[in-house]
Amino acid sequence: MRYSAPLTLAQAEQLGKDVGMIVAFAAKALNHMHGTNIDRLMQTFTSPNALEVTAARYLQALEDGHTPGEAAGRAGTALVHDWADAVLEAAAAPRSPQLPGGSQEAGA
Length: 108
Description:
Layout: H1 9-31, H2 38-45, H3 48-63, H4 68-92
């Protein structure tokens, strides 16, 4: 299906299905990784921001002349890269010390 701005109702429904499949395949690809929590992964991948960015990347790849399958692959790959970058960034961030009871030190 070709998309045009503004999207028709049928185009919006199809875009939602396409992005849903992209997210599902990206999550499935990561599900086998040790320590990956599929529920948290799906919450991350289905956040409004992630869905909006994935849809924009998919539409841009289509506009650039890629087939729907290629466009989906590009958008899904970018989603996985964004997730991996965020995981690595979080792992590298210094942890603030915790006081007994779970509260952070004053002034931290």
